[in-house]
Amino acid sequence: MDLTSLLQTDRPLVVGVLNVTPDSFSDGGRYPDVDAAVAQARRMIDQGADIIDVGGESTRPGAPRIGSDEQRQRVLPVVERVAHNHGLVSIDTTRADVAAAALDAGAAIVNDVSAGRDDEAMFPLVAERGVPIVLMHMQGDPQTMQQAPAYDDVVGEVRAFLADRAFAAEAHGVARHDIVIDPGIGFGKTVEHNLALLAGLDRFVATGYPVLLGASRKSFMGKLLNLPDPADRVEATVATTAIAVMAGVRLLRVHDVKPNRHAADVTAAMLRHRSGWKRVVEQ
Ligand code: HH2
Prior knowledge:
With 283 residues, the chain is of the alpha/beta class. It has helices spanning 3-8, 34-46, 68-85, 96-104, 122-129, 154-171, 191-199, 201-205, 219-225, 234-247, 257-273, 276-282; strands at 13-19, 51-55, 88-92, 109-112, 133-136, 179-182, 212-213, 251-254. Strand 2, helix 3 (68-85) and strand 3 (88-92) form a beta-alpha-beta unit. 6-hydroxymethylpterin-diphosphate is lined by residues 17, 19, 21, 24-26, 55, 58-60, 92, 111, 113, 134, 136, 182, 184-185, 212, 214, 253.
């Protein structure tokens, strides 16, 4: 099933993170070869992931940039096998040439953490291929974003940025129904900024674009709970999943599929029960 059809159901969608990088903050280096990465994708799908998000460049604070050739070498064999044998794949890249090669290899969604700003060829590519794109907010770039993030009104500014980027994408011919927005938890944000965004998720949902949340294992929870090891932040992530589904968020990008699938499904069942779900989805 494609993303548009999945979004027409009343299920929250779980996006499993698959970083084929040596240096990602949480799962970097865990999948040294294609077989290991494909096996992890299979596990995530068995646990209830709807989409596998494959990335070949870490965006953790201070991470080095990875050239397109290297990204392609890392992701393409994995994208090809997961897309053909297992399920729906999104490609996490800001480079249009990497996205194009991944789409050719079977990916069906582009996840661009620069919201089309890193590569001006990204929106024309997505428009031409007619595929969905996730537009994420980031203040600054991964090298510098955590040095001194500052906003007057973080929810208002992030929302205005995303509306602007969605408008730019549509101006290039990307269909409105192919746009997903994402407040970019941890990308140029303090703990307080991230909490404000979680508290204000309903304002993103109210734009009418499907919203994706990527809070999984991120450092604001480590700071709140004094948990330096990202692997210890699974339970905290599950709390953010329930908060997000309550607010009407449709996609949850997570490393730990099973607990988040359960949290999302129980929260959605509760919403259906009080018939709030229909209202949320139709906003
Ligand atoms: N977060 C990360 C990477 N890609 N994409 C979207 N749409 N939203 C996010 O919040 C998001 C993202 C960072 O997390 P991770 O992939 O686990 O780490 P790294 O960037 O170090 O590979």
